[in-house]
Zinc finger CGNR domain-containing protein (Streptomyces violaceusniger), 187 residues
Amino acid sequence: MNLEHVFLCGNPALDFAATLRARRSVRFEMFVSPDRLDAWYLESGIVDTVSASQHADVERAVALREAIYELVTARGAGEPYGSEALAVVNDTAREPAAAPQLTASGRRTDATSQEALSTVARHAVELLSGPDVPLLKECGNPECTRVYIDRSRGGRRQWCAMDPCGNKLKAAAYRARKRQAQEPAAR
């Protein structure tokens, strides 16, 4: 897997939770260093600049990520929230968040790593207490554990994205149908 951050889920908190890829199999960690965490904050667009993170910031970010994922999957399964996960999200959301400023050239958000992390936690609070909860779905690819907001017409989206998950499963289904069609002819 590559270290490119992707933003497919429809909410920064969900994209943040997806930074541990392939949770059920190879478990590919995206936050391998403070630099990768800072890159996520910048690439996600929640801040324009962020002060350099430290290893302790990565540990806090991973704890928040896991808490968000636990709460999102509990909500999707109709289960009650775990108290520890709630405490992590709420405690992080209580910290000062990144505050946008108006400049002569437009909007700008400069933040510390803690402020950026608080902003992610606040996105999680808003998501899990807002109108998009019924739209949360987990990717249909068994190797992918991304949860996304399904805003498709009819709510029938099955994958986090066509590339790579949808394409991979459609190609596998096509190959299986082709194999099955060839088996009766071989008999």
